[in-house]
């Protein structure tokens, strides 16, 4: 597998994966704060400010989502009719 920088991010070149699939896994990996799907995703740096800020927001939303899921599973969030 070869790697190269494309639009400010490290891209793994693999003929078996499509670019869309790799981008979706990267986005999903950034959304999950406690799970690392691919070690290479942590090494990606974004040179364009708006992209970098978007993924900061993306990570914050991942932490909020994780807290809501944890609260729901622990019973802190229940339907009002129960």
Structural features, described:
By secondary structure, the protein is an alpha+beta fold. It has one domain. Helices cover 48% and strands 12% of the residues. It has a two-stranded antiparallel ribbon with strand order 1-2. The longest helix has 26 residues, at 49-74. It is elongated and about 55 Å long. The termini are far apart.
Q: Give the low-confidence spans.
A: none
Q: Number of folding domains?
A: 1
Overall mean confidence score, pLDDT = 80
Q: How would the global form be characterised? A: elongated
The residue fraction in helices comes out at 40-55%
Secondary-structure element order, N to C: EEHH
How would you name the oligomeric state of the polypeptide chains in this document? Answer: single chain
Helix/strand-derived category reads: alpha+beta
Topology readout:
Layout: E1 2-6, E2 9-13, H1 19-31, H2 49-74
Antiparallel strand pairs: 1-2
Summary, kept brief:
With 82 residues, this protein is an alpha+beta fold. It has helices at residues 19-31, 49-74, and strands spanning 2-6, 9-13. The chain has a two-stranded antiparallel ribbon with strand order 1-2.
List keywords for this structure.
82 residues, elongated, alpha+beta, 2 helices
């Amino acid at each position: 597998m070869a790697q190269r920088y494309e639009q400010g991010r490290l891209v793994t070149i693999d003929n078996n994966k499509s670019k869309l699939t790799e981008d979706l896994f990267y986005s999903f990996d950034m959304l999950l704060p406690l799970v690392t799907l691919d070690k290479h995703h942590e090494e990606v740096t974004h040179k364009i400010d708006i992209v970098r800020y978007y993924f900061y927001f993306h990570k914050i939303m991942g932490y909020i989502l994780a807290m809501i899921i944890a609260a729901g599973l622990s019973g802190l969030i229940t339907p009002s009719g129960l």
